[in-house]
Amino acid sequence: MIATPVAASIDTAAAVPEAAPSDRFAWPLVALALVAPWWLPLLSQPITTFYKEWLFAVALGFAGLAFAPLAFGGPSLRRQPMFAACLALMAVLVLQALFVDGVWRRAVLMVASVAFFAFTMVLGQSVRQRRGADAVSWVATCLFVAALGSCVFALLQLLGIKLPFAVLPWAGGRLYGNLAQANHFADLLWIGCAAAAVLYAAGRLKLVPALAAVVVLQAFTVLSGSRMVWVFVVVLALLGLAARLRHPSADARRLGSALLALAALHVAVVAAVSASGVLEAFAITSAEQRISSGDSADSNRQRLWFWRVGLDAVHQHPLLGVGAGRFAGHALELATQVPESPPAGADTQAHNVFLQIAAELGAPVALLVAACLALWLAAAWRRARRHPEILGAFALMAPILVHANLEHPLAYLYFLGTLGLLIGLVPNEPSPAAPAPPVPAEETAPLPSNALRFASFAVLLGAIGAYVQYNPVERAMQVLQAQVRAGSAPQPSQALAARLAAIPAWSAFGDYAELIAVVTAVPTAADARAWLGRCNRVVAIGPTAHLLARCATAAQAAGDARRASWLANGLCKVYPDSAPVLIESMLLVELASPAVANLESRCVDRVK
């Protein structure tokens, strides 16, 4: 619905050559992956973005199969530092899965994500091989359409127009379209702004439609209320200034001017939207209002807290971290020890990708990943003097990289894979001024097309396996959610038991199944000790309010009053408004285990 005006404004004189017959199925699939996931609504399930990520992976997997008949070069893979980073991450995760108790499921899921990131880099190289310098503009067009389309859904959300299975309901305050958070929405919109600058600089988007599109994108950015936008403005302005001053190419200077114009235009758009009365009419708080009124203090406090948790985890476990997926458990432990910890301080993410890696997998591998990224950026910057389109790739990935160090977008495949695809678009050939030493012929021969075909099949098989394993977890979660919506404490039922029984023990999503089982358990004196053991494993990964409440009752029923009070007080500290959840759990479990009535906690005493 929005692709038509965009296509009409693109200069046909700059169109790319017609794709080869073997590739014609791949281009629509890559475009689908880069556009559709941003538009799908979230579903209230164990992983709310599962179907968005699943569509993204499946579309790119089929695109890889369509690209497979043409071989891709092996030497470029060996010169890509980010592949070394992926191998290092997977090696540490495999070691943890084998030797660290209770983390293998999360380690397997993380290995799959890292492998998918590597696959998208290879796919990006295939796109580059086929379209040459035009590859960045082609991907920018897709992301431009995705961002404009997201504005359409955000407008429907703002106006309260509900379409079945199309628009996520809006709770007010900050606009977020069909994405997980307002910050994610702002990230996508600024990727769209960067894409508009790239298309304008490449001569594929006229000035007037480019300006109109950017004004729309930036206006919705203001409605997102994301303060992160100003970091995007500064980073893209610096990139634009560097392109203007340091690169001799006219295309690079044109892009630099466009990026500087984005920064200046945003100031004007913010002033116009603030003066229009739109914010007051829809009760939206802009980033500027949040900053000036001090409303963002709690957000700052939380982010600083998560960074503190990450640093503490590195300090206590410097070599191999606390374990894959155990950041939240460490946050809970620290929150119970530190008086000034904020509410909701047991998040699963450090809000900084390098701190996240260091906290869960160890400082050495985090430093290695950071070094690989720095080496790749430096090498790509040098190559940009011969390939100015590299600066366009930098502009498109800049919002994602900034966001990844202030939040956790790379936990979502459609952010992670888009970044990998953009990295793959950057050529990796050695500089002619410093030719590489001779390499044996067997090492310089291109990899067979079967390599890409194998990787694509692996992605598709992984997607199929993920759906098969996820579906019974989803169905079990539906039963649990129905109980909570009815206002009752989670408890066992025949329907729930049947759905949990359908989840195999080897499932990579088994942690969610165990969490559901523990949350709905009613421990007795006979089995409370076993339930407590399961509690201790799951609490380290996902300490939700309902889980902490039920685990506290399990500990009390098992005779471990100290552990019971610690879990209950952890709930009181991290979820200060969830005392009723603890009371409901106590009343339910007390029927089978009267000792639960003696559970001591600060918030229950306060409520009483």
Labels describing this entry:
globular
3D architecture notes:
The protein is an all-alpha fold and 608 residues long. The chain is built from 28 helices and no strands. The chain has helices spanning 3-8, 26-39, 50-67, 74-78, 81-99, 104-131, 135-159, 182-201, 207-224, 228-246, 250-276, 278-281, 287-293, 297-316, 327-337, 353-361, 363-383, 389-404, 413-425, 441-444, 449-485, 494-501, 510-519, 528-539, 545-557, 561-574, 579-590, 602-607. The chain is globular and about 80 Å long.
A few lines on this structure:
With 608 residues, the protein is mostly helical. The protein contains 28 helices and no strands.
Average pLDDT, all residues: 88
Total helical elements = 28
Biggest sheet, open or closed, and with what strands and sense? none
What's the SSE pattern?
Answer: HHHHHHHHHHHHHHHHHHHHHHHHHHHH
Taking pLDDT < 50 over at least 5 consecutive residues as the criterion, the unreliable ranges are 1-19, 433-447
Give the tally of β-strands. Answer: 0
Proportion of beta-strand residues = under 5%
Structural class: mainly alpha
Gap from first CA to last CA? 57 Å
Q: Rg to the nearest angstrom?
A: 25 Å
Shape: globular
Q: What is the helix fraction of residues, given as a range?
A: 55-70%
